[in-house]
Every structure is written in structure tokens, then in C-alpha cells.
Write a structure and sequence with these properties.
Chain lengths: 504, 498, 98
Amino acid sequence: MSSSAPSTIDAASRALAAGELSATDLASAMLDRIAAVEPTVHALLTVTADRALADAREADRRRGAGESGPLLGIPIVLKDLFATDGIRTTCGSRILEHYVPPYDADAVTRLARAGAVLVGKANMDEFAMGSSNENSAFGPSRNPWDPGRVPGGSSGGSAAAVAAGECLGALGTDTGGSIRLPASYCGVTGLKPTYGRVSRYGVTAYASSLDQVGPFAHTVRDVSVLLGAIAGHDPRDSTSAPQPVPDYVAALTGDVRGLRFGIPAEYFADGIATAVEKSVREAIETLRGLGATVVDVSLPHTSYGIAAYYLIATAEASSNLARYDGVKYGHRAKRGADELLEMYRHTRDEGFGAEVKRRILLGTYALSAGYYDAYYRKAQKVRTLVRNDFRRAFETCDLILTPTSPGTAFRIGEKVADPLAMYLSDVFTVPTNLAGLPGLSVPCGFDEAGLPIGLQLLAPPFEEADLLRAGDAYQRATDFHERRPAEIGAASGGRSEASEQQSA
Amino acid sequence: MSDTRDETPDYGDWEPVIGLEVHAQLLTESKLFCGCSASFGAAPNAHTCPVCMGFPGVLPVLNERALEFAIRTGIATGCTIPTRARWARKNYFYPDLPKGYQISMFDEPLAIGGGIDVETPAGTKRVRLTRIHMEEDAGKNIHDTDDAHSLVDLNRAGVPLMEIVSEPDIASAAEAADYLRTLRSLLQYLEVCDGNLEQGSFRCDANVSVRKKGDPKLGTRTEIKNINSFRNVERAIDSEIRRQIDLIESGGTVRQETRGWDADRGRTLAMRSKEDAHDYRYFPEPDLLPLEVPRERIEAIRGELPELPAARRDRFVEQYGIPDYDAGVLTARRDLADYYEAAVRTHPNPKALSNWVMGDVLRTVRERGLDEALVIRDWPVSAESLGRLVARIDDGTISGKIAKTVLEEMLASGAEPDDVIERKGLRQVTDAGAITGAVEEVLAANPDKVAEYRGGKDKLLGFFVGQIMKATGGKANPQAVNQILRARLGEPGTSSGG
Amino acid sequence: MPVSLEDVDHIARLARLGLTDEERTALRGELESILGYVEQLAKLDTGGVEPTASMRDDSTPTRPDRTSNDDDAEKLVERAPDRQGTYLRVPKIIEASE
Ligand SMILES: [Mg+2]
Ligand SMILES: [Zn+2]
């Protein structure tokens, strides 16, 4: 990408509106950038070059016809679990390696209506199960800040693509931190909206009561634009919320005076990296300097979050993933062709990776006869307690401020052998999902290795506007979100399995 | 519906305990959670979409009318409709189950309690209901195409069902059939299910166990699946009761298992092997919210309930003065009762019309092999036409005997009774001159019989009437014939007249 | 919470998951350790606490009973790994026994 090409949606949108740039030029620049960095980053599973150029031409035509809009002509990528009509959607899994959906997800339709340009489908942990992207069946994405490290997961490809400049915005999903953790690890801004704020229709389910669609971009302003485009009631999703969608960009006043930030002691406990704690405490001071107030709050059930989350999420996943059986679409094993039960077992053995199998088994166990009450039902009760914690905390504050994760991006392979250690990366993000709340991660510093650190802001349900206003005010006062990784060479990184094809 | 059935079987000192689970397809246009057609007869998989085929990312949205129908049924059977019901997933793998789970209800069903009053030869029997819940149907597997494969058609997958579960209050196979007939009639009255057993829109599974009479403890039960006619319900349950009794008496024990009914061999067969014991792992369906039906809505549905069979039967006896038996037959099906009432509105002779409907109408329906459940829909003579036909008997235009001929013509051509009567010249002859002529002719042709009659053989009157009717093509008014004949012949044993 | 290989086999069967011997062994240990971790929930007193199954408190929405199907049997079936006409085709299902 030429140095003059804008790196934010806001800047690009203004350049497009002013006629300084065409959507077609911008798309081409993005495709060039993708070609240059993909061998290292491997953020994408499918590069939709033809589609991107067609979308861009259409955006230019619409603009020529007098249309305008903040996403008209803006290149984006989608986590590869958003159904895209005619474009393969793998969910990072062998079992769907060649699957081409017959319809578009609601968020995809809304982005197309807004004129966004699809440049690719992003790598991800298989079926969104993971915190590092190492569970992708097609090889992990790499962190643009250090290709030896993970980008976080499960929406790691989406975050890495934004960080590496392969697109200006991206969509991911967040079930236990899968947007916020990679946003934090990759030094970009990521938002998990309130459960029900964005339709899940067309989004491959991992854990239905926890999954939520959300945007990535460099800035809170860009994230606000994306949220405005994808949020809203969808009659095809029974859990979608009917609440009206406010003008999120208009809410970005830069003013946080009088806003009360709650600081939960439980999120600053043992195990948090020194650099992380230091950066987050500095962020608190920054906000205080902007006129915000800071109060102590308590979220006493925080430490039970991971346990409850892994029971609920895996139970739902064990059921959601039963449909991959080699009957209607996707992979079917050649072995076992003479007997149905064997066909099922071989298909699912060949099609699913280790983490998916582990979670299916855990979830099946948690729901099975004799264990339901002790595991699944118990976890649902703990969920109530976690929810009540937040309700109580929000009686004395407007937003809650925490680190996004106890640490920064870890090395590829570092936690693979210990699933439990991996699960604990999500200790600060999981409770939000259990409570259905919105959460924002913004860059707030760098550790001694130069790796980005994320600040997490949480709000009561449907108070995204407050969250975004606070995040934007913070970004007006800081420049962490403006820093970019050093030029990514083609030298490091493993073999890329990204397929430069576009089906149908 | 047949009124004949096998004698109540005698199981010695054994007492069967039977509970029934009925799956009734709700009469909606579209499926329970998607916009696909719920109708039968399409090409394989033509009635499918990403939702009912379980594609990645799809979500269910509840069909308004299906919910309404299930609530209506719950209210009509006296169930309590809890303030909250909850959808649950029932997890199991089968090719006809595209998502790997069925969306159903588990521990928080739509309706609980209630019951159904069943008329049995021994009197009214109350069969209590455990619950009614909603769920989606599975597709269809076809096994007999070749040795190596089965085929799957998902047209039915997602069709709305209501599962009606009875308490084990049923004591014989015959009673089970009576219960099912009553329930089917009720669902047809409510217009929530067409009750078609052959097409599978009304299906029954039976839980059967036996115990020694007086034993408070229930025996181990088996579940019989896939019974597709009332006759087979009786046969299957009776056969299973006898199998269990024989088994226990020969020292065996009943195994809790699912058995299928083999109609050809007339016995039940174990369906699934023990190692595949089911663990459905029910849990609340996270893609749907709980079902909270406002009280006002329930009361509104209650207010709109149609008159139900038992009430209608009582009213028929009261209002039309027909025997209880007649009222029972006429009200067993809503369409038949509607037909009868429409006919009575056209011509207020309830008893005569009752005889016509129960006699000629139902007999012809059976002769034509029409589905008894759907009788009136496919019946070519309107209630109004039938009323007008009987009116022509009562006003003397035609005789009852001629009326049967007229009805046949109406059935064949769809014509109105008056048109048939005119066109075929069937109008009854009441003109005394014309009848007297025929009387004279017959008497003149049979002088010896006249003599015998006058000699005291009064039974010959019938012979003369018959001859006169024959001479007039059946059209002579029988009363006029009688009157004129008697006047002409004089009293038997007298020789007056001439 | 001890987990046996038989437990692993049982739930793998319920989940229709084929596992190699190494996977069986590895998963047994992993499940045992994860279940050991979640065991902490047992210590938490949840008496009188209602489980949260749904994030939203409304009653589930409904849609009008209207059909929206184009009756195109080909469209979806073309994605099936095996088919016969517009039927999906699977290895023989063996149902009845005795
Ligand atoms: Mg059922
Ligand atoms: Zn459908």
C-alpha cells in the first residue's frame, strides 16, 4: 500500500468522499498489501480478490450516482464463520474446508448495503474455539507485531488483518473474549456488543447463548461506524434485541467529565503482568485527567467465570456441532461407507481438530445423564451470580475498567500442551459474555518486548454509546492506537495455506 | 369410525397399564421454525431451506399459528398453561434429524394436567393428561432402496407437532382405541390437526406394562412405536400385553425397550439394541427465548374455543330430540355435525335427517372408500340439498323410497333434488282419478285374489298395494293408494262394493 | 473427578466421535484435569439461585404462518456428499434387531 493510502475508515471515507481516491484504487492497494504480508501473517483463509474489485466498482458506481456513507468503498474482512453466499466459509475446520454457503449472514447483508468491500475471509480458531488461533485447521495466523507470537483468538485473523493493514475494518465474534483478546494482542480496537445487539443469523454457532458479533478497526471512531452498520433487530434471530440503534458516531463527544469508572480489585490480582498493570493504571490516570471519576467496585465471582464458561460453552457447542455429520454438506469420510455409525465417527474424527473434540467431549459430559445438575445447571446458576455482580457494580459506576488480558501475546506453541493454561487467557473477558454485556478493548501501551497491551471497558447492556464515547476520549488523549507494527517482511513465518481462490 | 370391535379381551388375573403419546401435526401452512411449506407430497427435499436443513449459522423463529393451536388444545383439554414454557434441545444423531437435535420441550412444557373423557361401552372414562408440548418433526429415512444405502427426505423436518402425553390410565387395547378416537375428534373440532393416520399427521406411541390385578406396583414397560391405524393400535397393544404376560408366566422378565409393530406378522419387535441406550442430553434451547404467554392471550383463546364434542352431543339430544346414540355418532366429527346442523336449518326435521345422515350418507361414504375423517369434504351432496330432499318427502312430493333413487342421482350428477324429480318424472301421484284407474286395473287383473281377500284373507292388501305401486312406477302416494283400495275392496269378509 | 477410558469411550460414542488410542488416552487426562478445575464450582453455594439460560427476558418472538419456499429441491442438496436424485444418501441404517 502506498504511504499515502489511509489506514483508518474515517480517513479513507473522507478521501473517497472528496474524490481523492476511488474505491477501486483502495481495493487494489489492499490486495497488493495482502499479497505482500500474507505469507508472513496468514490472517486470511480466502482472499476474495474478484469479489473485492466487483464490490469496489459497485461502490464507485453508487458514489457516482450520488450515494454517500461512511462505509461506501471501505475494504473489510470477515471472520470465516460468517456465511457468505457463494464464497466458501470454512470456520477454520477441515469438516467445512470446501463448504460454500447458500446465503448471506445478516451482518454481511448489512455491510453490503452500506457499500463495504469484501477483501477476504479471516483465519480463526476452528469453530471459534481457542484463544491463540493455533486451532485453525489451516495453520495459525501470526501476530503482525511479532510473527513468532500468536495474534490471540479466536478472531485472530480478523485482528491481525487490521493490524497488518490488509483491510480497514473487520468483523469477528466474541464468545468468551474472542474479539477483545486478539484486539489487545494485536494492538487494535475491538468491540463485543451487548448480547442481541447484532444478529447472529448466518454466523456459525459456537455457544449460542454467549456468541456475539462485533467489529475490529484501528480506532474507536471506526468501530463505532461499523457497529452502526451491523447493529439492529433481525426477525430471523429470535435472540436479537428490538432496541433502537443510536447514532454511535454522534455519541463520540470526547467528553468523559463526570463519567464514573469502576475498578474491580479482582481484575488486578496475582498473575497479571507488571507491564499490563502499569499501562492500565496509567490509563486510569489519563481518564481521571479528562475529568472522569474513579470508584472501587467488587466483582466477587470473577474467578468462577472460566469454570462456568467452559461448561456452558462446551455444552452448547457439543449440540451446535452435531450437525456436522457428513450428510447434508461438508466433509464425509471415505472410511465407514458401509455403516452409518462408522460413517459418523470417521467423518467427525477426520473433520474436527483436537480442541474441538476436547470441547465436544467436555460438553457432552456436562450434559450427560447424571452430570447435568452438577455441571451444566450449576454453571447456569454461577452465571446468574456473575450477572448479579455486574448489576450491583453498575449501581455505583457507569463503566468498568480492567485489563483485557493478564498478559500480552504469547509465543506460538507456548500453551498448546496445556489447555487449561490457554483457557485462563480469557479470565478477564469471559465474565462479560456470561453476563451478556458490551466490552471494548483499546490499545493502552506496550510491554518491554514491544507487544501491545489492551484496556478493557465494560458497560451495562445496550450502553455501547457510553463505552465508545469513553474509548474515543481516551484515544483522543493517547496515540497507542496510531502505532503500527514495523514493516512486515516476507522473511519470517511458516508456510501459508491461505488459498488465493474464490469459489463460485 | 367403526362401531364394531373385538370383544374386550380377557387377560386372566393380569391387568394391563397403558399410557399413550400422540404426536399430532398442527395444521399450519409453514413449518414450526422456518417458512417452508408443511404440506405433503412434494418432491424429495423440495420443502427445505437452510434453516430446516440445519446449515451453519441458521436460527429458528417460532410459527405464531402453531403456538396458538397448541395453546387452544391445552385449554380445550383442561390443562394448565404455565406462565412460562421453555424450549429444549433433545440431542441424538440420525440422518433424518438435520441439526443433530430436535427442538422440543422438556421440563417446562406448554400445558400440564387436564384430561379427556372417553365414552366406552362401560361408561365414561376419564383419561388424565400428563402434558402437552410442542416440537419439530424429523424427516424421513427410506431404507428399502438398496442394500448399502438409506435415503433421506427432509420435507417433514421441522413440521410442527404437538405431543400429547397421557397418564397410564388406560386399561385395555380397546380403551386405547376409544381414547385415540376421542382425542382425534377433539383435535378436528379444534381445527388444529386433520387427524390423518395414514399420512402420519396423527401418530401414536404406546407405553405398555402389565401387573397382577391389585398389585400397586407398576410392571416394566415397553414403548411401541409407529402404529398407523386404529385397528393396529388395538392389535399392537393387545399383542404386546399378551407377549408380556406369556413372558412373565414362562419365567422371563420384561425389558424396558422400544418395540416396533409389525402389522404383517401381527407382533411387536424390539427396535434398538441395548448398547445404544439413549441419553438425550436435554438442555434449554439457547436460540429461542422462553415462551411467556400473557394471561389475556390465554383467556382470548379460551373465549374463541368452538363448542366441543361432548357439549355438542348433549345439545343435539336436547335441541333436536334425537336419541343419545344418534347424537354421539353425529357429533363424533365436527364436519359431520356441522353438515347435520346445516341440513336441519334447511329443513327442520331433525329425526328424519339424523336417519339420513347416519344411514345413507355414512353408508355411501364407506362404499366410496372415502377417509372417514375427511368425509364431508369429499361428499358431493351439500347439507342444504339433503335438507331439500327430505323436505320433498315430508311435503308428499316423493315417497321415501323414491327419495333414495333421487339421492343416487344427486350423488352421480350433483343435481338438486327438485331437478332430479322433475327431469325423471318422479313426482308422487296423489291424484285420486289416476290412482283409482290403477286400482281398477289391478283388481280387474286379479279377480281370484279379490275373491280371496273378500273371503277373509286380509294379508292380500299388501299384494294389491305392491301391484298398484308397480303399475304407477312407484310414484303413487302410498296413503292415497291405501285409502282408495280399501274403499274399493270394502272390509275383508264382506261382499259389498263391486 | 476421576475420568476412566470407559467414560471417554461412552461420551465419544454419544458424540459420534471416532478417537485414536492416543487421543483416548490424552483426552482422558485432559478431561480429568479440566473437570478437576471446574470442581471449584461445587464449593460455591448456589442455593436459591435461579439458573440463567437466556440472556434476554422477553418471550420468544413469533413469525406469521406464511410459506416462503421456492420448492427448489436441487439448490441445497447439491452440497451433499452423496445423493440420489434429490434425496440425500447415507450408508445403510440398520434399525430393527431381535
Ligand atoms: Mg416427541
Ligand atoms: Zn425450511
